Each structure stands twice: as structure tokens, then as C-alpha cells.
Amino acid sequence: MQLAATRIFTDDVDALVEFYASSTGITAERIHPMFAKLRTPSGTLAIASTATVPLLGDHVANARANLSVALDFLVDDVDATYEALQDVVKVFVKEPTDMPWGNRSLLVRDPDGNLLNFFTPITQLARDRFSNETQD
Q: Which residues belong to any copy of the VOC domain (predicted)?
């Protein structure tokens, strides 16, 4: 089995696509006005309009309701990312911080309130652990 994508439902596809394209440097593929994809070597982030939710079932998803999932983005330099995001991100949850498990992390919220973790492994153990995970 393969995880094909992580999808965020939003009331404002354009705003979320612009945010993710600006904050990651990844060009979005607009498949439809109600849907976009941002592809990375390790996975795809999909952004869909809440107008598509009724096609899936009654009340199966709500925009701006996530408080249990974070999107993790591996970056080369968390501090440089922090500086680059100053004009893109409105809500910084935690400035670059060294975490006990060996990553340096920056936590922000996207325009819908979803939590994003931009991180860089800073210890050899963390670099080795991440390298092993991406090879599976």
C-alpha cells in the first residue's frame, strides 16, 4: 500500500494554494478550480474546496477544524526558512527551537489554522533516523 496524498479541505482554495506555494517553493498543479496538488519527492499535498465534500458524504469534513494533525516539511535550514516566511506566515506558533529528539523545528499555522512543522535534523542520530525512514 502507498499513501497517495494528504488532502486539506478549505473554503478558500486560492488562498491556501498561494500560501503553500509561497511557503514551500513548490509550484501547485491546478487540476480544477476546486482542487490543486503540490508534489514532492516523498508525497503529495492536495488542496480541495469544501464544495467537494458533499460528493464524499454528509458532513465528512470541515474546513478550519483540524487540531490533531501536523504537516512536517523537511528543510535544509530552519532558521533560513523562518526568515523567508516572515512575509508569508501570519501565525508563528514556535520560533526555531531544538527539540529533544534531534530536530530543529519551526511551527506555524496556515491560513486555515492547520499546523505545519518545518524541521531540520541537527544531530547525527536524527539525520540517520530520517535517512533510514525515507529509504523504506
A: 2-121
